[in-house]
Every structure is written in structure tokens, then in C-alpha cells.
Amino acid sequence: MDAAHFILQPFICALWCVARMFIKASSGRNRINVLGVVNAITKEVLTFCNTTYISAETIVVFLKKLKEYYGDIPLKIVLDNARYQHCQLVEDAANNLNITLLFLPSYSPNLNIIERLWKFTKKTILYAKYYETPDKFHSAISGFFQIINQKYNPELRKLLTLKFQFFQKENVLIYPI
Questions:
Q1: DSSP per-residue string spanning 45-97
Q2: Residues spanned by the domain of 104
Q3: Is this model's pTM higher than 0.90 or not?
């Protein structure tokens, strides 16, 4: 589980040109927050979107929805160490809902498969696209997550694998301090 904060701004895929180009961009700062979870086995994606902010209370509401959705199936959720996820309110709510929270080591987004989903989302929805209004931008993001499980399932199965590179201890050089 993780949150992504998509901002209405130009995302350039690649840029090389002889002459100067101007790229349309909207004024002001407009964003949409997406709190998401990926089922590591089925690759099913569940999300919650808002335009305000993600807080510990938002995480608790999302945990309750997850417990309601999955019923009596034991849940183990892998999270990073974001402050709003790693607080007493969230940990107490998870204990009450019988959800196990597994926190990743600091600075290890490569171990959380949902980070690959956020990259896929940016590539699919944001790269080289211009949205004239914030409403169109919000509709594109929320619409993408409404159809992601049906339309992009083959891509998600290839992308969200549980294959990670592990290093043998004898291959790592450790220098004494």
C-alpha cells in the first residue's frame, strides 16, 4: 500500500530539438492523491482518490474498506515509512481490524511493487499529455483506476511480479569505518 500524488503539470517523455519549443502547462498547483493497494497474488488494484490530502485518518478509513472488501481473509500490508502510515492511530486501527502491517526499510521503494504501478500510471496517463482543465485531469486519473483491473490486467501481471534482486553477503564489500 502506498499513496501517490499526481500533479497537473507537463511530463515530457523525451526532449531533443534544434529550435526552442513551448509546451502548454496549466497555471497554479492542482493535484489528485491516490491511495492504493496491490494484491500481490492476483494483481488486483484497489484505490481511493481525493483532492485534499492523505492523512492517518484517510489510511484508517482505507484499511476499514480493505477489511470489508476482503472479509475474513488474513491481510498483510507492506508499507513504506511515511509518517501518516507509521503512527499509533494507524497501527491501533490495523490491530483492531486484524491486519498485519509490514514496514519496509527506509529508502527502499524498489521493494514495494506498487511503486511500479505509479510509474506505469504516469507513463500511461501523464507522459506527453496535456489536460486543459483540472476536471479533465482528475477524470483521467480516476477513470484510469476505475478500469485498470479490466483493461490493463495483462500488463499488470508482467509488471507487478514478486521478482526482486537479492545480493549474497560474500558479494558485498563492506568497508570498516
A1: EEEEEESS---HHHHHHHHHHHHHHHTTS-EEEEE---TTTSSHHHHHHHHHT
A2: 2-7+29-171
A3: no
